[in-house]
């Protein structure tokens, strides 16, 4: 089990994230933090979208704070909630427009966790809207979002890449909001092994301002939280670890469902790691079956090799992309992917030379595993 | 609501529905789901005013209920409630009820 050391404000963030979390024991400080530590912790809580749990922890007296620290925390939470509402308005408008175009979606992460899994939606903060869209419809979905004023952040490498291989597409709006349309849940090989049709098939409804929306079903929310916590950045995403605990299987049937998908989608290694991190960081005690499963270092050797590509500050995005070749079934699909990753349409001749120097070994390995 | 924006007499108001909202430790944040309005953050007192209109109420009824709840004279809070109601009406969060039971924003046809 890889243990990620908690440095700087990380233990305090973990303590905030453990607020009112069943089975979690990470403790807040025993007395108010000194000013410099408080400033750093609040800034980190904002970055990690933990303003809600921090404010609640302080308000209940679980986290001791000075008068000015209380005011800081409530100000930060107020700002985070204002942003959440603006984003939810964007969510409602976008889903309505997509449904008019006959495109169903699944709401991912922030709003879904806030309204389904948290005891109070004000505990979950978020900075953008993430929607899962069936790959075959993603080009139409892009048109809809662009029609609502969305500005695509990165161009498509080659025509058809979005539909076949992309994790998703990010859009910014002049009204200072952001929407990501996802085809799958993560970049690189782990995103390509997920059965996106099965992922989309399960759903759980929730209501937002009188509108019925659909999130992933609970087992897939659990898997997504694990993937995001472990693969979403160079360090554990503490808010995602809280999501993981909130969506953890409630009984053996749900556990079998979640782990069955993890096996078929080749996500056992990141899920096992996420469970370990939630134990280490939040002091969470999973149920006995999940604990026993996670302690076996689940996942084939190939998954653990892939995991290394997501570690560290560089996170080797090109290596992740090339490793994606191993995750794609069928020679023709691999060849297409290899060509589109190695030779994006917008490459300059000098880029192509550099890419091909390193690409062939990885491509050869992937095409003939 | 009079043309100059003051709450006169005892018009009846009801909360717009739906409204996006989040509870705060010390208040509530509200946002109409349509349009481009900015979110409105109310403190605890403003939240009490907002909650008082959950089933529809007149301003006078609201002032009386809040004054009773806090052991105050209605005259001491009437102005504050009027300012809050005015702000909520201006942002489309409270709607004035007409005699037919429908609700409209002041000035709407």
Structural class determined from secondary elements of chain B: alpha+beta
| Largest sheet composition of chain B | 4 strands, antiparallel
| Straight-line distance between termini of chain A | 27 Å
Mean pLDDT, all residues of chain B: 82
Helix content of chain A: 55-70%
**Helix/strand/pairing class of chain A, anyone?**
alpha+beta
Largest sheet of chain A: 5 strands, mixed
Shape of chain A: globular
Number of helices of chain B: 3
Number of strands of chain A: 7
List SSEs of chain B in N-to-C order: EEEEHEHHEE
Count every beta strand of chain B, where a strand is a DSSP E run of 2 or more residues: 7
Helix content of chain B: 25-40%
Radius of gyration of chain A: 21 Å
Q: What is the first-to-last residue Cα distance of chain B?
A: 15 Å
Uncertain stretches of 5 or more adjacent residues of chain B: 1-7, 99-109
Number of helices of chain A: 18
Largest interface: A-B, 23 and 20 residues
What amount of the residues of chain A lies in strands? Answer: 5-15%
Write the layout of secondary structure elements.
The complex is a heterodimer of chains A (369) and B (109).
Chain A: H1 10-17, H2 35-47, H3 51-59, H4 67-100, E1 106-108, H5 110-117, E2 129-132, H6 138-147, E3 151-152, H7 161-164, E4 168-172, E5 178-182, H8 188-193, H9 196-201, E6 204-208, E7 211-215, H10 218-231, H11 238-246, H12 252-264, H13 268-282, H14 288-294, H15 301-308, H16 317-327, H17 331-342, H18 349-367
Parallel strand pairs in A: 2-5
Antiparallel strand pairs in A: 1-2, 3-4, 4-5, 6-7
Chain B: E1 12-15, E2 20-24, E3 27-31, E4 40-43, H1 44-52, E5 57-58, H2 59-70, H3 74-90, E6 94-97, E7 103-104
Antiparallel strand pairs in B: 1-5, 1-6, 2-3, 3-4, 6-7
Helix pairs in contact in B: 2-3
